[in-house]
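Researcher: I'd like a candidate sequence for this fold, 581 residues long. If you have to choose between options at a position, lean toward the conservative one.
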């Protein structure tokens, strides 16, 4: 009906009526690409473009918002709009010096720039510099909504400060500094959702308003119940970007989301975003993680992106909940054909990171990766290989193709990627010697190149404590003993019916232990698996608990762990006297 009314326009129809009809069309939720074939719609746009110079400031704002809703990116229409904005903003120097702007206020300029950025339009650096200078001159009178619009316009119009020699980037940087100062000065006037949106805009612009972050966080925490799920997720993502590791914030957010009424109706995307923010901050809350695992165990998030994000976040924070992770992995694997290369690599590496051996899911990841191997970058290929090695899954076709692809590319330029490749190569040489023997010459050269230690041991206080405990037990143990590429905190011998064996002891940190189930994670499990293949037994103790004990209790706890393991293996510790037992 709106298009029918627009088709009956005559040359005498008021311009305000045409703008009103454009607004009504934009509210229908139909994009410009779908309406382009209707002559009534194109005629309406042509009429407005022809008389753009006769529009007032509010009408220009209405046109810009309508084009944003229609996702209209046509350059000629927006170019005419920029020209009219310049005409009304800089009418005369006398008028500008007396009031500050001409026919457009700073709020209208911010709104139009924001709408243009959201629509995907383009603006020249010269015009953007002029508009930012006007906003910079009158930044003190801007409210929270105008500030959010201006920051959003800088981001969407791709004028984020990067290069010092560009005038538009210099002005954008000055405006962002003024915006941060204004945000700090007027924080008590801002609404809670406005604070969250402003922090999110600074976050997406890679700018950190250091002086106001904690003040804003404290104010948001006092009114966290008034925020929606998406606003809470945006706030947590901003804190993760700013690296604000405040456990009090996390506990308050988790308590708010875990309440019965909100936990049932929480948005899945917001839940996964909060979980991802927690993993970025490296701050764990066991009850929150356990609640998320129980939820994912019953049902994985509906969207593939959310499931991949949840799987990656749980693995990064160190959660080895087999039921929840297998549920997420199976859901993601079923949709592996629609995943990007980075999502495939992230999913495979997440399973290996916590030591989950899901052969069906890994086989689907390998099959999907083979079809798009040229689209993987070096980092993603190394992550995929490392995930397969940590999980203990061997796919001949994928690993062979991935190694050949790495040979064709340059060497990894990162120490972490080099260590990952060394771990993969040692895993292949130890567990799959037939594959290594049949590999091509370039792959064998690569295998030899990365045969170097990838796990070292630093001298620290707990190593000295361990040496004292071994001396107290009169055990002839070796501190810092190595086997292959691995280094153990200590090594002792025991003798059983099957002969003399070495026993490696490790004091592991909390980052190597699951925060929910309290079991070792993927790297520790891989070390145990490789040590067993090389003829060593291993036991692990939690370093934090063992170091807290006094010297005599540390020796007693060490003896108890050693004797318990040797007894299970029907052996006897060498040089451990009967009276000490």
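Model: Candidate sequence:
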């Amino acid at each position: 009906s709106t298009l029918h009314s627009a088709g009956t326009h005559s040359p005498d129809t008021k311009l305000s009526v045409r703008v009103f009809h454009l607004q009504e069309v934009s509210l229908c939720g139909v994009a410009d690409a779908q309406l382009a074939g209707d002559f009534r719609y194109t005629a309406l746009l042509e009429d407005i473009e022809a008389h753009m110079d006769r529009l007032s400031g509010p009408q220009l704002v209405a046109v810009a918002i309508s084009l944003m809703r229609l996702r209209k990116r046509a350059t000629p229409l927006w170019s005419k709009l920029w020209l009219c904005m310049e005409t009304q903003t800089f009418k005369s120097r006398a008028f500008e010096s007396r009031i500050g702007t001409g026919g457009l206020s700073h709020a209208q300029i911010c709104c139009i720039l924001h709408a243009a950025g959201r629509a995907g339009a383009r603006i020249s650096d010269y015009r953007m510099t002029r508009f930012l200078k006007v906003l910079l001159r009158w930044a003190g009178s801007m409210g929270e909504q105008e500030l959010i619009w201006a920051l959003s316009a800088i981001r969407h119009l791709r004028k984020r400060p990067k290069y010092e020699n560009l005038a538009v980037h210099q002005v954008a940087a000055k405006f962002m500094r003024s915006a941060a100062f204004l945000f700090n000065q007027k924080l008590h006037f801002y609404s809670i959702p406005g604070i969250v949106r402003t922090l999110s805009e600074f976050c997406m612009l890679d700018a950190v308003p250091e002086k106001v972050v904690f003040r804003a966080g404290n104010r948001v925490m006092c009114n966290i119940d008034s925020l929606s799920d998406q606003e809470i997720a945006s706030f947590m993502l901003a804190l993760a970007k700013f690296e604000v590791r405040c456990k009090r914030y996390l506990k308050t957010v988790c308590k708010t989301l875990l309440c019965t009424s909100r936990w049932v109706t929480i948005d899945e995307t917001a839940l996964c975003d909060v979980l991802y923010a927690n993993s970025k901050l490296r701050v764990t809350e066991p009850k929150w993680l356990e609640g998320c695992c129980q939820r994912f165990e019953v049902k994985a998030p509906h969207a593939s992106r959310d499931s991949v994000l949840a799987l990656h976040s749980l693995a990064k924070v160190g959660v080895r909940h087999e039921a929840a992770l297998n549920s997420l992995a199976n859901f993601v694997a079923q949709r592996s054909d629609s995943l990007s290369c980075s999502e495939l690599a992230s999913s495979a590496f997440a399973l290996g990171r916590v030591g989950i051996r899901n052969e069906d899911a890994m086989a689907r990841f390998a099959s999907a990766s083979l079809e798009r191997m040229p689209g993987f970058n070096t980092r993603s290929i190394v992550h995929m290989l490392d995930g397969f090695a940590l999980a203990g899954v061997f796919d001949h076709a994928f690993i062979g193709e991935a190694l050949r692809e790495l040979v064709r590319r340059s060497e990894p330029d990162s120490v972490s990627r080099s260590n990952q490749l060394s771990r993969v190569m040692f895993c292949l040489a130890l567990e799959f010697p037939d594959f290594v023997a049949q590999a091509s010459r370039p792959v064998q050269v690569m295998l030899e190149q990365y045969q170097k230690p990838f796990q070292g041991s630093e001298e620290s206080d707990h190593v000295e404590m361990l040496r004292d405990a071994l001396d107290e037990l009169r055990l002839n143990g070796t501190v810092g003993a190595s086997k292959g590429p691995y280094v153990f905190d200590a090594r002792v011998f025991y003798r059983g019916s099957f002969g003399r064996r070495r026993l490696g002891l490790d004091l592991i940190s909390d980052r190597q232990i699951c925060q929910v189930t309290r079991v070792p994670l993927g790297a520790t499990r891989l070390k145990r698996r490789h040590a067993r293949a090389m003829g060593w037994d291993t036991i692990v103790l939690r370093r934090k608990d063992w170091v807290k004990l006094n010297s005599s209790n540390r020796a007693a706890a060490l003896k108890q762990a050693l004797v318990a393991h040797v007894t299970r293996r029907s052996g006897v510790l060498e040089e451990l006297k009967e009276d000490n037992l």
